[in-house]
Amino acid sequence: EMERLKWKFWFWGGRFRRQFFMAVPENEEDYKKSRNEFIATDAMYQMICNLAGGNYLMSLLAFLGVSDGVIGIVLSLGSLAAVFQLAILKFMQRIEKYKPYVVITVFQRLWLGVLFLIPFIGGSLKVKAVVVIFLFLFGQIWSQTGNTVAISWMALLVPEEGRGRFLARKEMIAVFAAIFSTFVLGIVFDAF
After folding, report:
1. pTM score, two decimals?
2. Alpha helices by DSSP H, the chain
3. What confidence category does residue 22 fall into, taking pLDDT thresholds of 50, 70 and 90?
4. d(Cα 97, Cα 44) in Å, to the nearest integer?
5. What is the pLDDT of residues 119-131, one digit of tens each?
6. At what angle do helices 28-52 and 163-191 cross, to 10 degrees?
7. Which of 137, 124, 145 is nearest to 77 (CA)?
């Protein structure tokens, strides 16, 4: 029984490692899958950032009793997080495998998604406000540092003659997803 459990652990661990931490895909199918997953990830990121960085975040902080001045400062922290892109440039020169770092930063972006759950968590409004500010700043820092590396990694995965078409398709899908989600959630917010 222990041997079987050990075998399952190694099997699933190997699949996880191959899926998320292989430096370069092994064949054309893996390349295509990586590019499609990158497009889907970017579309989800655009939707989360649209919602977590704008009206939803303002409404949430106002609900938690944060003053308008502090809300303005918190929203500007997203721009301040872009400073971390400068720090990552030096790091990128030493990095050999982009994919593990990209995967880690994508998972860290989930902190922006957790913002949507804060109203449902118990606790005082002050604690919730601090948690929202921390999650927003943390998510923005990881997002800003991950974008630079992700785009560099994608440039390696897309053939040079198809890069423009791929990036245009990626942006089109991401913008459409962001507009659609903002529209639908705007209707939902208005209903409540």
Report:
1. 0.67
2. 2-21, 28-52, 55-63, 68-80, 84-94, 98-108, 110-114, 125-157, 163-191
3. low
4. 24
5. 788 888 888 888 8
6. 40
7. 137
